[in-house]
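S.,

Sequence below, as promised.
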Amino acid sequence: MTASTTPSTSLRCGRYRLAVGEHDRPLVMGILNVTPDSFSDGGHYQALDVAISHAEQMIADGVDIIDIGGESSRPGAQPLPLQEELRRVMPVIYALRDCGKPISIDTYKPEVMHEAIQAGVDMVNDINAFRAEGALRAVKDAEVALCIMHMLGEPKTMQAEPHYDDVQAEVADFLLERIQALRDAGIAAGRLCIDPGFGFGKTLTHNLILLQGLRRLIDATGLPLLAGMSRKSMIGAVTGKPVEERMAGSIAAAVIAAERGARILRVHDVGATVDAIAVWDAVRKQQSV
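The prediction came back faster than expected:
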């Protein structure tokens, strides 16, 4: 892991330019899962009209980015056939592409990336860090933002006794390697952000170490960091609460991530997170006066 240059202050995101500087308010990315089996909200938003209604509510609540996912990446999840993922996500993308907010597609399949980009998405959020054959070709000539995430193994097996000698250093080294691969493919750094992958091949201790040391990853890469901890098992492990009762813990984690430099917060509870971040940001800016 090596030190980087001054962190980015702007993220090129399709039709948008997102302010992601240290003094900007962290952006809230709302999760829109059109899946029957996601760990938290599986089956809630499969119907197109319900998915659109939920997106409209997120917009009313102040969301900055809407992240559409058609395949569950919960621990133990089985891979989803390509055509089924396209069937789930494409109608939602077409329905929301002109909603006035950046649209992100959460996928690791190059074919889905290509179709989603053609349909007008502004970001590709890949849990596999664009390692699949054809992924770089699918995204390199677009203007979309790209989120590079760390995952140890794959969803089916990632929580089977994950081990690191130094989780911060190993996650940073992986992200630096993938950033270089994308840069070598001709992708501008201004399109990139990183995600340490909370819960993706990490124990509770690993997750807490990463959260505590987010600035180490930001300083190492010089890129905006996306943090996604909403309702995950790490929140349940700390609070003892089931998935449906993890909002307070998730908001606390989001505020801690913001305090440590995260520029994008990926959450289920948009309105409550927007309010919490607004209060945190107001206090922070008052301190700097």
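The CA atoms of residues 281 and 287 lie 10 Å apart.

Coffee later?
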